[in-house]
Recover the amino acids of this structure.
């Protein structure tokens, strides 16, 4: 036997691959094989689709945003309502799929990492539904910031393990989950929530999230008789973005736009803009664009949103940006907050802080497109989990003055 | 192939001993004092030094080495500074001992693979261990290292199936690093019972010496494992000893483990 080379395994151009300790390689090979078989098995696809319909509440609507459309004065704005999926975000699409895959593989327990807690809640939910024990690793800082989601995970029967190392955020939670997986790899499946990590995870997560874009395709044809002119999504690790954008990669007339965390501003180093300012590197098992210093040390990312302060990004998105297929922009913490209030007040929807970044770039994009065009914003999750963070800052006077 | 590594194993064997590959983190607690730790380990009997270069996100390491990485990064231990400031000093004080760098692929990528291979070799490094670079990802870098005369030392895990383990061993440079437990680096009170048969399988296939590491902290464990390998790698136990009690403690632990490796 000779060991194959990396030329094509799980690669998106130069990105992707499988950079993990040897201990994990056999598990990743097993996962790849099991997933390939599951994907080819119509019964598995039917099972996933059925749970998504009966339990998650799919399909989620494509809602016209009339008041935003009027206020922005450009393209017709449509919201893909992942906030209406069970547990309040798109994350559940992937965890249902992966937990069913784990059951198929005969795994006895599940571990996961989480940043904002949405993926943790979604994993805990899928585990409760199918009766598997679940452990979620979460940065200690995020445990503090996202108390509501910590409670939800515990209520669902999951064990939350706060990670006190490093920046105490998502990147450290992912390190710790990987370390745990290395020692428990035989009977444990690690449910990664971002379209990141070693091959085959970026592909698995993308495939399970692609249902978002597939529904948008169908719905846009039905609602306005054509594909959207542009689709915009926030990007942390990138699971909602790749999910809504991937089905349109071949449709050159559809503009694909990602919005990253600009944090305190790109000049400050306190941001999460790895597609905008990252350089090629290896983090958490895949080669992609990462925020790092000249010595290859990973930088701590910052965002008001716990789901976006990740210094890496999924390899497929890095590829789409590098090849020019996808546009990338950023929104600062303040712009996201402003967008949060704007959307809440004009559409009656409290968007997650992650999603608020996508909205923050919505106005300019709507105007760039112009009237008669159609813009879809992926409403990746709802903002209930963020209200404590946002309320702690107080409602800005400018907003109260304008709207109350 | 560097040749120095094979020579060190042969020397230990001629003395009737298994080889001790001793790990410490360069820059822990600071750059000069880590040189003292490396020198002390050689005084204690270490046959090969493994020089840890810190990475911010060390997924293959347990808490002891992870915390050492954080201290080293605070002390400014970049790969460049380790090669330019730590390695030459260690060479000076331990001219006979082969030096091996252990770090993560991103650190090497940031410097550039070719640039690293050339600089490392120039400074007297014989080999490199990259725990997050499995064979599927390493063919390119191995060719670069081969051209520079730097050994890319492969790892083999308890979860590695036999055919794969044999393939890894057959292609090995320097020595094969057999990870003794499924897990991260760190001390263990007990080692797996089926370890010896796995080590024998790798030994049969490998043209170079084989070592076992991860979890070894006592002379007794070194004796048990040393019977089935050409040497052992000790990391976390030495890092902890040096951090708690300084270079002398690392010297003493090396001497103790060497006693366990006498045949």
């Amino acid at each position: 036997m000779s060991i194959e080379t990396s030329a094509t395994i799980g690669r998106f151009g130069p990105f992707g691959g499988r950079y993990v300790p040897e201990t994990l390689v056999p598990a990743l090979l097993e996962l790849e094989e099991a997933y390939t078989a599951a994907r080819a098995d119509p019964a598995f696809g039917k099972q996933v689709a059925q749970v998504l319909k009966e339990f998650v509440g799919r399909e989620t609507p494509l809602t016209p945003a009339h008041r935003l459309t009027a206020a922005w004065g450009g393209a017709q704005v449509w919201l893909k309502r992942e906030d209406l999926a069970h547990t309040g975000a798109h994350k559940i699409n992937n965890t249902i799929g992966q937990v069913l895959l784990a059951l198929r593989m005969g795994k006895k327990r599940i571990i996961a990492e989480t940043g904002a807690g949405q993926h943790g809640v979604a994993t805990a939910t899928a585990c409760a539904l199918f009766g598997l024990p679940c452990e979620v690793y979460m940065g200690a800082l995020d445990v503090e910031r996202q108390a509501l989601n910590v409670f939800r995970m515990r209520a669902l029967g999951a064990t939350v393990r706060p990670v006190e190392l490093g920046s105490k955020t998502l990147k450290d939670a992912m390190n710790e989950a990987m370390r745990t997986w290395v020692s428990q790899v035989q009977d444990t499946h690690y449910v990664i929530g971002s379209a990141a990590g070693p091959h085959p995870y970026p592909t698995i997560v993308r495939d399970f999230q692609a249902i978002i874009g597939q529904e948008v395709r169908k719905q846009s044809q039905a609602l306005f008789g054509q594909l959207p002119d542009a689709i915009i999504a926030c990007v942390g690790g990138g699971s909602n973005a790749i999910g809504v954008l991937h089905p349109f990669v071949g449709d050159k007339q559809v503009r694909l736009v990602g919005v990253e965390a600009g944090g305190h501003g790109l000049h400050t180093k306190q941001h999460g803009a790895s597609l905008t300012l990252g350089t090629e590197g290896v983090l958490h098992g895949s080669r992609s664009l990462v925020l790092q210093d000249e010595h290859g040390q990973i930088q701590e990312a910052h965002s008001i949103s716990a789901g976006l302060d990740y210094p890496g990004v999924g390899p497929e998105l890095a590829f789409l940006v590098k090849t020019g297929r996808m546009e990338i922009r950023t929104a600062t913490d303040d712009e996201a907050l402003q967008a949060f209030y704007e959307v809440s007040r004009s559409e009656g929807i409290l968007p997650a802080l992650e999603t608020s970044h996508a909205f923050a770039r919505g106005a300019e994009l709507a105007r760039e497109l112009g009237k008669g065009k159609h813009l879809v914003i992926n409403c990746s999750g709802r903002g209930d989990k963020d209200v404590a963070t946002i309320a702690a800052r107080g409602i800005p006077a400018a907003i109260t003055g304008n709207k109350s | 192939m560097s040749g120095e590594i094979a020579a060190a194993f042969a020397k230990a064997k001629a003395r009737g001993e298994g080889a001790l590959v001793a790990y410490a983190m360069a820059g822990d607690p600071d750059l000069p004092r880590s040189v003292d730790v490396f020198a002390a380990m050689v005084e204690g009997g270490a046959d090969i030094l493994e020089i840890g270069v810190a990475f911010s996100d060390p997924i293959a390491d347990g808490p002891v080495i992870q915390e050492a990485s954080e201290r080293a990064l605070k002390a400014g231990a970049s790969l460049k500074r380790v090669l330019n400031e730590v390695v030459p000093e260690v060479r000076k004080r331990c001219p006979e001992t082969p030096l091996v760098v252990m770090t993560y692929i991103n650190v090497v990528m940031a410097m550039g693979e070719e640039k690293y291979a050339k600089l490392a070799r120039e400074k007297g490094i014989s080999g490199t261990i990259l725990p997050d670079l499995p064979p599927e990802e390493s063919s390119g870098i191995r060719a670069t290292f081969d051209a520079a005369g730097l050994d890319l030392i492969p790892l083999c895990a308890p979860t590695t199936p036999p055919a794969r383990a044999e393939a890894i061993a057959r292609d090995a440079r320097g020595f094969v690093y057999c990870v003794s437990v499924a897990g991260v680096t760190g001390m263990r009170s007990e080692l797996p019972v089926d370890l010896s048969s796995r080590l024998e399988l790798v030994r049969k296939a490998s043209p170079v010496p084989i070592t076992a590491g991860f979890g070894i902290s006592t002379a007794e464990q070194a004796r048990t494992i040393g019977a089935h390998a050409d040497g052992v790698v000790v990391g976390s136990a030495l890092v902890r000893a040096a951090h708690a009690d300084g270079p002398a403690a690392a010297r003493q632990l090396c001497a103790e483990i060497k006693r366990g490796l006498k045949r």
